[in-house]
Input
Amino acid sequence: MTKKETEWISIPMTVDVPYRFAAGQYLTRCLTELRDNGKLLAVECPECKRVQLPPRIVCAECHVKNGRWVELGSEGTLVGFTIMYLPMTDPTTGKPHDPPFVYGSIRLDGATSVLDHFVHVEPDLAKVWIGMRCSMVLRPREDRIGDLNDILYFDPLPGQKKLQA
Amino acid sequence: MKRNVAIIGGGQTYHKARRHDVDQAEMVNEAVRSALKDAKMTIDEIDLVILGNMEFFEGVHMTDCWLVHGTGAYGKQGLKITTGGTVGATVVCAAAHHVASGLFDKVLCIGFEKQEEGDTGAILSGVAHPLWGRSLAGAAVGYFAMLGSSYMAAWGAKEEHSAMVAVKARQNARKNKYAHLKLDITIEDALNSRMLAYPIRMLDMCPASNGACAMILADEKTAKSRSRKPVWMRAMETVHNEQFELDWRDVLTKRSIFSKVCASRLYKKLGVTKPADYFDVFEVYEPATWAELLWYEDLGLCGPGEGFKLIERGTTNIEGPLPVNPSGGVLSTNCIGASAMLRIWEAALQIRGDAGEHQVPKEVRRALTTAYGGTNWTVMTALSKTLDD
Output
């Protein structure tokens, strides 16, 4: 007698959810400025003076209205990074990036917050390090749509060398 | 607390990658029945049922409504809680508040996740800011990878240290009959496992598990009359930070980060100055190896930048002076909505002396548990054997 394998029914289904993100007052200003003038704006809290990204109406720590807009420099410092080996889908585009690729957390000059983005270097530990200086590279004006993807990636500034540990 | 609260029973399912043999209600009911049996109670005696899981991780939501037969909430007061990785701890925290308030005497807490039915990665992309938080295809792996790279750069730790955490978790899990990843691995195995996102390798990350945990919390009078081994909830604390503004990956930050603030508030409530002396066992929320090393530091078990030295010395091994995650932790079992509750339940089992093969070989009177929700908040719970501890 052959042993009959237990059968369990499991039905594949797909849930496709359309979605429209309303950027609101503060982020709309930030994104239109990025699109139209290629500048990244942050907001400063009147009390704690933290320069915050993404711009938001209220400082969470002080619970006061953020009022002063600050134009950030296009250069910053890498404060964390990874070399990604998984072909993960970018949820903002629906497309996978070809691994391996480098992305990191960049603190732009003048900002308290960090911004996560691609770092335009070879996926080689000798070529990327914490403390590396980078500059923001935008899409050409005609291709910018008012999205975070208007920033293409961060380029390492020339003439730097990784310090040996 | 206004009224003392105790854990008077609990239970969990076996945790696995595949549970095609049960639907969600059947799986949740396994944990519920096991908790009721442990507490020697019937569902009729329960005043309130609090259920927690992550919305849509199973491709469905409002599980509190349609799993009502499995949870036992039919005709009872009920609540649903979803707070990211903290879910299970938030459920217990809410239950403890309900009992402490005097409005409820016996509360059933349930946390579960049946990840195989949904696409956790896809749904995770919706848990953060739609522009700033979703970008870059990094998901949780990418986030912990950046934590690891900044930790190594700041303190001089090596990949070998994260491998030691990976080995400790899976070797402990081998002693835990309910754990998912029971792997007989070595440091070399961990270091040779597939690179996912530098410096995170396959064995540095938690699995996607299916499973459920349930616990029954009761007031002091009920606990003393009904339970031989009540475990007391001595203090709870929750702290949020704002995402992006206070970055957890910045291990050198001088600002007050959620995990450290939460620990210091909890210690103040308990009058603890030396947590390493005060607590006998720890169950921390470590979806990745590097997170455990950071917990050692944020909980004050060592100084900043010394976490990797604790694992190197074997201090946090099951038989070490400061056992951390004798159950195998989240690295061995991650059924998200249950994971933070499992930390509390496993700590309670240690205090009861009922942990079985993974019972730490010393007297356990006090335990501390933690949870992560998203990347910017935590719930901590301190448990004790008696009300004098």
